[in-house]
Amino acid sequence: MSEGDPPLLADPQGRLSVFLGLLRRVGDSGDGASGLLPVALPTLLGTLQADSVHLVLVDPMTGHPHLVVGCDGDGLHQRDIPVGSAAGRLRWDGSALPARVSPMGEAPAWALELCRATPESPVGWLLHLPVGRGPRPDGSLLIFRSRGPGFAPEELRWAEGIADLMALDRQMRTEREELVRVRSESRSVERISRALSSSLDADRVLDRTLEASLDLLGAQDATVWVVDRAGVRCAAARGPGAPEVGTVRALEEEGLAPVFREGGSVILPEDSSGGPQATVPLKGGDRVLGALQVRLPREGVGVMERQRLLARVADHAAVAYENALLHDALRALSVTDPLTGLYNRRQLDLHLGQEVAAAKRGRPLSVVLMDVDGFKAFNDREGHLAGDAALAAVGRLLADETRAMNLAARYGGDEFIVVLSDTGPEGAAHHVERVMRRLARDPEFRETGLGLTAGCATFTPEMERPEDLIASADRDLYRNKAGPVDGTATTDG
Fold it and tell me: What is the rounded CA–CA span in Å between residue 202 and residue 206?
C-alpha cells in the first residue's frame, strides 16, 4: 500500500469487516427496493476518499442508460438520464466500456455529463467500472476524486469487489421479483381459467377473456376476431380504440393472416394509436377458432413477456370458448329442425306457452300457420331430395323474414308456423304479404311449381290454451285453401 492510501484500505482486518457487512446485506429483502445502494455508495465514497460516486443504471430492454444514482457530501440523490443526452444515446455493453482510470481532462463526454463536471476543469481522476458481468452489464460505476495521483491497484480491486456485490444484489433482487411476478401471474391465470370455464355462454366467455386481458396485461384495448365469410369479424371488443362489435375486415388489413392461416402470433410495433399490438390464436386442437388481439402499454414488462402471458390466457380462453360453441351447437340441435334450420315443435311449444301467458295479461299475440300446396304430389313425382330442398327453401325465407323477437318453426311435414309477439291482426296480415311476395320472387321455389297458403289468428280472451290459438289459425288456413278472401293468403308457384 502507498502512503496516500485511505486508512481503511491500509487495514486488511477493517476492510474485510466492511466487505462482509456488505455481503450479508446482498439480496436482503429488508433493504427495500433500493437494495444495497444506500450502503454501498457511501462506503465507496468514504473508503476511497472520493468527491462523488455515481451508479449509472441501464434499461435492460433498450440497452441505454436511464437512471443515475449519486452519492456525495450532500448524501444520496438520483435523476433520470434524458434520452437525447450524451449518456442517453450511448449503448451500454462490457466491451465498449471496460474498467479504466482516466484523468478528468481525458474522460468521455458522457461521463463528465453524469458527474456534472466539465472538460474545462480537468482536475482529478475518474474511475469507471462495469457493474455486472457479461455482454450487457447492469450499468457502470463512476468514482470521481479530485485529490491524489489517481487510483491505486488496491483501490481498483476494492471498488471492483463492491461493484460485484452490487451486481449480485441487483441480480438476486431481480430474480426474486421475477419469481414473485410469475407466481402472481400464475395465480391470476388460474383464477381466469376458473372464471372462463364456469360459463357455457360463448359471448360471456369472450367478454371475460377481454376483461382478463385488460386487467392482467394493463392493455389499452382488447378484441376477439373470428372468421367471417368476408374476412374476419369482431366478435367482442373492449377499450376506447377497439373496433365496434360486428365490424368485418380483411385478414391482411389487421395483420391477422399468420394467426388464422398458420396459427402463429403477430406483434406489431407501437404507433400513434398507442403501444405495441400483440395478437395470439384461440386454438381448438389444430383449428384456429379466433384471434385475441390487445394493444399493450408502452412501458412496463417487455413485449415478449406480455405476449407469452397473453398466449397463456388465450389457451384457457380457447378451451372455454370451444366448450361454449359445442354447447351452443348441441342446444341448437335440440331446439331446431335439421332440414329447415327453423325451430322444432318442442321449442315452439315452450315459446308459444310463454307468449300465451303474456297475452292473457294483455300483450297482443298472433300466429300464422302455413301449408305448402301440392307438396305430396311433388314429393312423389320429383323424389324426397327435391321435396327436402323445397322445404329448406321455405325455411330459409321464413328465417329471413322473421324478427328476432318472433319465432318461426316447422310445425310438421309441410306445415310451418310463425309466432308474432306484440302483433295484432293487421300486423299478421302484413307479415303474410311480405312472405308471399318473397316467395313469388324466389327462383328456387318458383321452379318447383308449388304454392303456399297461410292462415292467421290473433289471441282473444276466450282462448285458454296455445292449442286454441293454433286451431283458430288452422281453420283460417283451410278457409283460404278452399278460396282465399284476398290474394295475400296464398301464392301459386
Answer: 6
